[in-house]
Amino acid sequence: MSPNAFTNRQVSARRRVIVSLVSKCQKGSAKVSSRTSITSTHTRSLRYRLNSTGKKLVKIFKCVEEGDLKRLQDLLLVTGPAVCRQQTGWSLLHAAADSNQPEVLSFLLKLISPNIVNKEGQTPAHLAALKGHTQVLKILLADEDFNLNKRDNHNRTFKDLLAAPLFEAVLWWDTSKIQHLLQLGADPDYHAGHLVQGALTRELQVTTPRHLALSLLREPIFDNFPQRGTPKRVSEQRDEHSSDDTISGTPFNLLPIGPLRLNVRPGSVQTSGPDVYRMDTDPRGYVCILSYSSFQERPDLVLEGSNSDVKNLSNVFGKMGYTGHSHCSLTAQETKQVLTSVREMQLLDRVGCAVFIISSHGIGNEKFLTSDMRVLSTQWVCELFKDSECPGLKNKPKLFIFDFCCGYYKEENVRRNKRVKYTRVEEPLQDTVCLYSSSGSFTSYSFTKEGTAFNTALCRTLAQHSHHHELADLYRQLLKECTNNSYTGSPQLHNFGFTKKFFFNPIH
């Protein structure tokens, strides 16, 4: 992952992708068969005509809403696909879904992720569902990266919003539309609430499509509905894994004290203001430690010293006023379950930040090994806690610390000639920092009775300097500590929308 959202190389690559896609779409057209790309003269002409950002946005969104694919393709060479409406946060894909333009939407899906969200936390599928655009929804659902469980700021999935067009289809006795909506997952027992307004709902006092069918004595429609379930209200829809009691692992307060005996000094600086992350909660933050020390049928990969690291880290963070759990040598599936459960914790609403520490064998800084010899990506871990995925940590600092032993394990059975997958416009990471124990090249793995070199340096830095140093200064102190202890790695700090100052602010 790069510290910048779009490097010049990425922008150039994306432009080449757009030109390639436009060229493919234009093949077979008599009017454009003589050219496979937009000439520089035509591009300059477009730039001249679109002389302001406002005009660009108006024109390109109008092309999407009217289904003018040819004009849209030309404009994309000027604007790129990452444009959005400032007021609503709508992407071009949102506009295509809302305007029921399946052809345009299919093209834009090559450039924009189906999971991108607007300021209301809605994906394009949410907008299509609310208006009952079934053809558009089928295209979105067919995308291999589409997230069925994505919820908006009101905790609603796209299936929840299908209750509105289902309500309308029942009212107008549109059996074909009803069948299509039910096939897409519409729930006839979902409380539509403010999604359905008007005199009908007030006079009949109905809030679900099933109740409406009963009130209008439309038994044929009623018979097509699945078996009755308990009506769900938005406020009652909480994920079944949202309870903090479902988190496995060992709580910090139950772990024995590690070999490092360090005293932590309480915070001594002013940590409030518009340019500082708020860190005055109790507990200060939640810490999740994932340590992988043993690996299935590979005794040569055992990472000694890991248990000492877990004890040292939990002890230091515990003294700083942080709470958390440690997990040792999980499988890939167990890792996914733990992180998903952490994401749903109600505790995240009450803490100031979250810290994730992962120690294992690394394939560069991009992937790490789980105990069952499966590989997970660091990008997947970070994206699991994006604002739209984890509302409890929205606008809060998220720190990911990756301590990888690199060079000892090489990924096996790498598939060759894989289908090229273009990078699409995604929801960016916000308020996120990634600290890597090395540059990702070969790292000499060493440990003492106190633990491994990097984590020992990290614990000492936090204990001695976190009470008065901001994160950037702490990073410099960590580099000094690593140098003083002859650590061979070169820790790297990457910033992703981390726009404010951050103090760990150890509790008094």
TrEMBL record:
> Molecular function (GO) terms listed?
cysteine-type endopeptidase activity
**UniProt record similarity statement:** Belongs to the peptidase C14A family.
Which residue stretches belong to region Disordered?
227-248
Q: What is this protein called?
A: Caspase
All copies of the Caspase family p10 domain together span: 431-506
The record ties this protein, via SUPFAM superfamilies, to: Ankyrin repeat (SSF48403), Caspase-like (SSF52129)
Protein species of origin: Cherax quadricarinatus
Give the ANK repeat ranges.
120-153
One BP term from GO? proteolysis
Residue spans with biased composition (Basic and acidic residues)?
233-244
